[in-house]
Every structure is written in C-alpha cells, then in structure tokens.
Amino acid sequence: MGVVLLPYLYSGGVHKHWLILELLEDLGGYVIQKIVTGTEVNLIMLIPEKDVHLIKAISDKLHGVLLEAPLTGVEIAVVSPTLASHHLPHSACDVAEYLRHPGANTNMIGLARGMGRRVALSKDFERKLINEHDLAVFTFGSFSDCIINKKPKLFEGIEVPVVVTGGPELKTEEVSGADLYVGGIGRVSHRLRRGEEVQALESLNAGVSELVGKIRTELAKDPLAVLPARVMKEIENQIPEIHNVLSPGPITLQLKGLRVKLPYEAFHKRVENLEFDEGVFLSELANISRSKMKNYILIKIKYKSDVGFSI
Fold first, then answer.
1. Share of the chain above pLDDT 70, in %
2. Neighbouring C-beta atoms of residue 59, cutoff 10 Å
3. pLDDT over 90 at 188, yes or no
4. Is 58:257 a contact under the CB 8 Å cutoff?
5. pLDDT grade for 184, boundaries at 50, 70 and 90
6. Is residue 260 a contact partner of residue 236, using CB atoms and an 8 Å limit?
7. N or C: more exposed end of the chain, with fewer CB within 10 A?
8. 232 and 216 in contact (C-beta within 8 Å)?
9. Domain boundaries in the chain?
10. Fold annotation for 75-219
11. Is 215 exposed, middle or buried (0-12, 13-18, 19+ CB in 10 A)?
C-alpha cells in the first residue's frame, strides 16, 4: 500500500518556517501553497500520515498552529442558477468563502438562465465546466417547491457529486439527484454572520468533507497512477514559466488531477512530455486536454488499473 498523505495547514511566523519546509521534503511530503503576509506565513501541506507528529513537534517549537485542512487538493464549483440579483445572493459568496477555510479551491459559476440565457454560456459548455471540478455546490433559494420540483433539472448531465444549499430544512432524499442537502442557507440580503447561519455553513463544510472522504476512500481501492502533488512538483521544476503566472494558485490540485493556468496551445506539449525519474512521461499516466476555463490545461490522471502500474 502506498504512502497516505494527510492535508494540513500551518500558520505561524515567517521566522525559521524553512525548518518545516526542509523536514517536509525529507519526509516525502508536499507544499501545496505558501502564503506570506508581512511577518506571518500560511503553509498548506500534504504530510505522510506516519510523520504528522514530527511536523507538529516543529510547529509547536515555532509557536505556530497546525490544523487539519480536509478539503486541501479539492476544487469545488459553487453554482448559482443565474447571475441576476435574485439568484446570486450574498450567501453564494459566503458559501464559496467558507469552503476555502478547510483548504478547498472554489470557483463561482452563474448559469445561463432567465434573462441572461441569450447572452451567457450554453448549457453544454456549463455542464462540461462544472464536470471539470471534483464537486459542485448548488446554492438555491428559500422555496421548498422550487428546490424539490424545479431545480433538480439543473443536475442533468452533472457527473460529479452534487451538494445543494437552500433556506428550508429538507432531507437529502427529498432533493432528487443531490448527494447532500444543507438547509439554513437561503436567499438573504445580508452576509451570513448570525449564529444559526454560521452553524449552517459549518454543517456544509462537515458534509462536504465527509463526501470528499468517501471519494478518497474509493481512490485508495484503485489509486491514481501518480499523485497530483507529484505532478505539480514536476511542473514547477520542468516548466519554469509557471512561476510567472499571476493568477491565484497557478497550479490547482484536484482529487484526480490538476488545472494548470498556462495557455493550452503554447504549453500542452511540454506538459505531456514531463518526464519522471522512473523514465515515464506524463502523457502515459494522464489525459491532458484544453480546459473550459480560460483556455487553461486540464490534467486528469488515469487509475493504476488503467495503466497497469503506479509511480
């Protein structure tokens, strides 16, 4: 069985934080993201399960905080029915922001419905864009009838797990096509700051983390041919232009792949020809295609059972 990597967030002072980086490299872990703000640093990391206590020991010495970040390496689409004000409430922004706390990368998507349909994206394009993510969170309003009888049509063709938020308290099985329903997050004209609203957001994070945990459990039965984090490291080493990308998260990790924020035409061949120490090229281990998002490069890694081996 391969090494199990657990996602963690370290927060502390910049002083001597390189001790954590050096130890993590020695242990075979990965830094997903490093954010320095003044004298503080945040490190999002994947740490080998058996070595977490070693990182924790250095974290304590440096008077930093080491927390689990269960949604690290997960890209989530936060979907609203339209970009109109009556369908894109403050709550959709709060949902996207709150999911980032445990480490997720979130993208907000407004569907082409209602008045916007004539000038917005086609349904097929939207569906493919949502399916590029690991999971989709649909933010609905406050009417039970609408959520139960009308909105499930939006899930047609969605292949990733579907989470639904809405105002009324409903059971998940009442919302056809949803893998999880979370109530208490409806259409409001204010930011979600009240006690019961924050509790609903906490329930959302817990539910999404549980869904992601199930996906990871399934992946353990038939693992990927190569870890997405290892592909990220090779891209950083072999394609130096990635360091010049100004977009947040130039390489976005997913559970089963990566989104590389470089132009497809100019760089896809170099991505395909990435070579690992084992003498294997990335094109042998993954499907590389043009993303529906801004002409980026989408990498979907094959399963060990498809390739016949893993590295």
1. 92
2. 21
3. no
4. no
5. confident
6. no
7. N
8. no
9. 5-69, 75-219, 228-307
10. Rossmann fold (3.40.50)
11. middle
